[in-house]
Amino acid sequence: MEEKYEPACPLLGAKSGNGSAFFDERRRRRMRHPLPDCRVLVQRNGRSFWALLLLFPWPGAALLGCGGSSATAAATATLSISAATIAFGDVNLNTTAAQSVTLTLTGTAPVTVSSVTISGTGFTLSGPSFPLTLSSTNPTATLSVDFDPTTAGSATGQLAVNSDSSPNGTVEITLTGTGVSAATYEVDVTWDAPLSSPDPVAGYDIYRSPGGQSDYVLMGSVNANQFEYTDNNDIEQGQSYDYIVESVDSSGNESVPSNTASVMIPD
Predict the structure, then answer these.
(1) Of 39, 70, 131, 158, which is the most buried if we count CB atoms within 10 A?
(2) Residues 36 and 94 in one domain
């Protein structure tokens, strides 16, 4: 074990053969006031600290006290990942759902992410290129994980993050999701024949508008002896619709609109 002692006040202190510190008695006697404090730098096994030597104007009155350690902790490269699992839940077939994963430097030294890989049917990855070094000036990186199922049923996958992080150099994130067939809706519209008409009724035109609006669009037509119509033209979940019906004579002239019928499509 090697120990080194170096006085901070070379005028007053010196080093003895065994490493102890003392002061020059002849110099002390020439001083009329108590000597100033003197610090001694002590080094042991790569660590260092200051020792405080209190000096007084009478012989043998030296008191040695220990100061604070100046040892510095080693820097560590540590990576934090925002998710341990990613669950997409139910996703309509041929529809993409996305979730993000954030990589963050939490250690005191830069960390290098050497690669990020993804596996599992329907799962894809986008984001920065690798290898990528995160540092104090660039401490985060965001990945986008997508799930786009093409067949109905559950799916599992894995996202693997490889780095020189200590600990957890390799982190595996579980991916889950279920592909489902999108719900389809249709609306059945029914009406009664007019009680009277100046011209014979040749048929009926059925119009639709988004709920609460007036921009009606013709959805279809039926002949005079039909009093219902099934609308399956791009019916959207969570949308409301208004319907009106107009009778038509043989020349294509339309009557005034019927009353409005409204419907709300569930989510």
Answers:
(1) 39
(2) no
